[in-house]
Amino acid sequence: MDNQGKLVTAQLIKSTFLGEGENQKTLKNLIEYHSNKIKNTLAPGTIRNFGITENYISKFVEQKRKTTDVYLNQLDYKFICDFESFLNSYWPKGHPKAIGQNTVMKHIQRLRKMITLAYHLEWLQKDPFIRWKSTFEKTQREFLSENELSNLETYHCPIERLQRVCDLFIFSCYTGISYIDIMQLTKDNIHKGIDGGNWNIHQTSKNQNPHKNTNIR
Fold first, then answer.
1. Which residues contact 193 (CB under 8 A, 6 or more apart)?
2. Which fold has domain 10-120?
3. Are 134 and 108 in contact (CB under 8 A)?
C-alpha cells in the first residue's frame, strides 16, 4: 500500500485483507468486463466458446466453492488445479462422454486470458497462472483418402437436408473454406478472375484477413 502511494490506516488494511475494499473486483466483474471487451472484436464462434467457459466457471464456483462469486485476490494456483479437476470429471448433459483433456486445457486457457487481462488492469497483484503449465494430449487427425472423397461425391442421400450438408462438406474439402465462412457466402463473393475462371473472394470470419481467394471450377 505504501509503494502504491496510499495512506495506510488500520481500516484500509482490514478491508483490503477481507476483500472489502472499494477497488476489489470479483470474478463476475472480470467476466462481465471481458465479455463486453470482446463482443465486437472476436469471431462469433470464439465468443461462443468463451461463453461456454464462463458457464463452467460459474458451475465450478457454485458446486465446489459453495458460493456465487469470489474476489479476484482469492484466485490462486489451487483454484486453477481444482477447476481443472472439476472439468476432468464433468459430464455435460447430452454428451456421450466426459470432457476430453484437450478441451479442458482450452477452457483453462480462456480463463487464463481473462486473468491476464485482470492483471494488466491491475485488478490483481499477482498472476495465479505463473507456475501453471498446460498439458495437451497429442492427437493425430486422419485425412480423407481420394477414394473416400470420391465416395462422398457420388453418394446420393435420400434426405435433402443431409445431402446439402454433404455438398457443403465436399465444397469445403476442395476450397479449404471453413464452415462458418461458407454459411456467409453469397453470389456477390463470386468474381471472374484474370484466368477467366470463377473466384470466390471473401473476408475470413476467424481472423478477419482481408481476402481469401479460391478458384471455383
1. 199, 215
2. DNA polymerase; domain 1 (1.10.150)
3. yes
All three cell numbers of 208, joined, read 478477419
Place of cell 476432468: 88
Dihedral (Cα; 206, 209, 210, 213), 10-degree rounding: -90
Per-residue pLDDT band for 86 (boundaries 50, 70, 90) equals very high
| Residue ranges covered by each domain of the chain | 10-120, 146-216
5: left (phi over 0), alpha (psi -120 to 50) or beta: left
Tens digits of residue pLDDT in 158-195: 899 999 999 999 988 888 888 888 888 888 888 887 88
Burial class (CB in 10 A: 0-12, 13-18, 19+), 101: middle
Contacts for 62-70: CB closer than 8 Å, 24+ residues apart:
68/28, 69/26, 69/27, 69/28, 70/26, 70/27
| CA dist 200 → 75, 170, 191, 192 (Å) | 48, 16, 6, 9
Q: Which residues contact 202 (CB under 8 A, 6 or more apart)?
A: 177, 181, 184, 185, 189, 211, 212
Please provide residue 29's backbone torsions phi and psi, each rounded to the nearest 5 degrees.
-60, -45
Instruction: Report the run of H or E that residue 212 belongs to, with start and end.
Output: strand 212-216
- C-alpha span between 78 and 33 (Å, rounded): 24
